[in-house]
Amino acid sequence: MIKNIIEKYGESFQTLLTESGMSSNMAAIFNIFIIVLLFFGIMYFIDQLIKEIIIKSFKAFRKKGKNALDHYLISSDLPKYLAHAIPLYIIWSFTPEILKQFPLLSKFTLKFIDIYIIFLGVSIVKSILRSVKKYLSRKPKFKDKPLESYLQILMIFSWGVGIFLIINSITGYSTISVTTLSAASAVLLLIFKDTILGFVASIQVTVNDMVRIGDWITFSQYGADGNVIEITLATVRVQNWDYTYTTIPTYSLISDSFQNWRGMEESGGRRIKRAVYIKQTSVKFLTKQLIEKFKKINLVTDYLKNHQKTNDQFNKSNKIDETLLINGQNQTNLGVFRFYLESYLKNAPSVHADMFQMVRHLAPTEKGIPLEVYCFSKDQEWLNYEHIQADIFDHVLASAAYFDLEIFEFPTGNDLNFNN
């Protein structure tokens, strides 16, 4: 019917122009111009009408809430792309009839429409993929997965197919020959080398669960220390603790060494591992007077009694000369202090009681004897963790003097004033 209308009114309008004194060539051109203008006006109206129908259809059947898949399909312009399909098909069907007097222009227009159809198809695929990615990223199961990487590789594949189809449409030669595919593969491998490496890395990262979005990683080679906020096909984006951003090549995650703190976050505790330096000359054996003095400290009272009883029995049974403290078994103020700190950690409400705890000596240095506290805080949040760690070592530094121990530090300021 539309074909008959075009033929009837097109010929009538051209005849009218010719009878008005216009040359046949000019009348034909002017006639085509008017018909094309009116035709595209009608197609635009149909396009907008179909678009509104599609959007209302989505909204009519959509689930409540903004996180439904159809919400993302609408926001990604899928209805607009789908609405283009029917008018485009009509234009493709009637172009030969409208431009039958201009075969070369008709052929060129059809080629252009073919290419546009391919672009439209890729755009529809892109819209659907982005909608699915946004939808899945809201799901707890997929929130920490590198969905952007898979989206990018699917888009590259879609554009690759589209480019082959465009070449085929323009040249008329098939692109599915072995020679063509081999050459194209070589070119693609050269151009997309980093992309292919990134894709392989993304798969390995996901399968081996090496990194998730939201993980805290430390990658000293690239100066990264913060949370992973995005994993794409080529790069991993990290927001550092100073709010700067570091971009890391995705394949570096499988080729280089980095530190992922997820294990700490999942364990329920955060490690505290720090040492204070005890001045070596302040370490000594305990006399009976010191033992009685230290017994007033609640956390070591029973320990001192039981340990001293064991020492006395050993020394007596072995007839040890106790006039010198070095003989036999005797306690030291550093040993009692170490036991005190272990007891303090066991009773500290902020320290994780079910995780490993230890207070130990490290090898002596020119600064003294390192006394290391090793335990885990219950709270993993950075600010609270630092407060817990500071509270523990505030207590360590303040309590050392009660055991006649000195904390080492280099002399400064008034320490070097020999007039005092």
Major β-sheet strand ordering:
4-3-2-1-5
Q: Report how far apart the termini are.
A: 114 Å
What's the helix-strand series?
Answer: HHHHHHHHEEEEHEHEHHHEEH
Instruction: Estimate the global geometry from the Cα principal axes.
Output: rod-shaped
In terms of structural class, how would the helical and strand content be classed?
Answer: alpha+beta
Main sheet summary:
5 strands, antiparallel
Q: Overview of this structure, please?
A:
The structure is a single chain. The chain is α+β, with helices and mostly antiparallel strands and 420 residues long. It has 3 domains: 1-141, no CATH class; 144-267, SH3 type barrels (Roll), CATH 2.30.30; 270-413, no CATH class. Helices cover 57% and strands 11% of the residues. It has 14 helices and 8 strands. It has helices at residues 2-19, 24-61, 69-75, 78-98, 103-137, 147-171, 178-191, 193-207, 252-255, 262-267, 288-294, 301-317, 333-347, 382-399, and strands spanning 216-219, 224-231, 235-240, 245-249, 259-260, 270-278, 358-361, 369-377. A 5-stranded antiparallel sheet has the order 4-3-2-1-5. A 3-stranded antiparallel sheet has the order 6-8-7. Helix 2 packs antiparallel against helix 4 (78-98) and helix 4 runs antiparallel to helix 5 (103-137). The radius of gyration is 40 Å and the shape is rod-shaped. It starts with a helix and ends in a 21-residue tail after the last helix. The relative contact order is 0.06. The mean pLDDT is 78.
